[in-house]
Amino acid sequence: QVQLVESGGGLVQAGGSLRLSCVASGNIFSITAMGWYRQAPGKQRELVARIYSSGTTMYADSVKGRFTISRDNAKNTVYLQMNSLKPEDTARYYCVEAVYWGRGTQVTVSS
């Protein structure tokens, strides 16, 4: 099993920045890719960004150019740097690896 713990969410004004962190523990040797999903009230869950063990990254069109996903293998941590935040980025953000999900961290962007 893999345990994922997110942190770094909060309240920020539009145009601001936040950095989310996700620390993985457990059977981390099998991890090939990790991602960040988000879900806003009344909306479907969506994939925000993903990073593979090769370093390859992918992003949702809505966040391209504003968000950056990265990983620190020595710390078993994945980050999501979010810049130029918009009110529509307001959601609960989840760290995901295969079938394992963290509990999420809330991001609220005020206009």
Structure description:
The protein has 111 residues and is mostly beta strands. It contains no helices and eleven strands. The chain has strands at 2-7, 10-13, 18-26, 33-39, 46-52, 57-59, 67-72, 77-82, 91-97, 100-101, 105-110. The strands form two sheets. Strands 2, 4, 5, 6, 9, 10 and 11 form a seven-stranded mixed sheet that branches. A four-stranded antiparallel sheet has the order 1-3-8-7, with no helix packed on it. A hairpin with a 4-residue loop joins strand 5 (46-52) and strand 6. The mean pLDDT is 94.
Rg computed from alpha carbons, rounded to a whole number of angstroms: 13 Å
Biggest sheet features: 7 strands, mixed
Q: State the helicity in percent bands.
A: under 10%
Shape: globular
Number of helices: 0
Ends: how far apart?
A: 40 Å
Count of individual beta strands: 11
